[in-house]
Design goal:
2 helices, 95% helix, DUF1490 family protein, DUF6110
């Protein structure tokens, strides 16, 4: 029987705590805090996107340079093979 009273007390306490929590979370001050946190998150996202864009541009430049190096190297090797075959 005591178990039932403990469970009932926990339920009632949880309900009261939940109701107070909902009131607290929907207050003007809480909304203001959520707004500031969301604004900071958006600023952070914008900053991260700028960094990602910069990294992508640098990676594209590196890839293009690497392709140029490989093309030049392949052309030199082809030249060397032609010279070796002619000799």
């Amino acid at each position: 029987m005591m178990k039932h009273y403990v469970r009932l007390a926990c339920f009632v306490g949880g309900t009261l705590f939940g109701s107070a929590g909902v009131k607290l979370l929907t207050s003007k001050d809480a909304k203001k805090a959520y707004t500031h946190i969301t604004a900071a998150g958006l600023r952070m996202k914008d900053s991260m996107m700028e960094t990602v864009t910069c990294v992508q541009e640098n990676a594209a430049d590196i890839l293009a340079s690497a392709k140029d190096i490989n093309e030049t190297r392949a052309a030199k090797e082809a030249e060397t093979q032609v010279e070796d075959q002619e000799a």
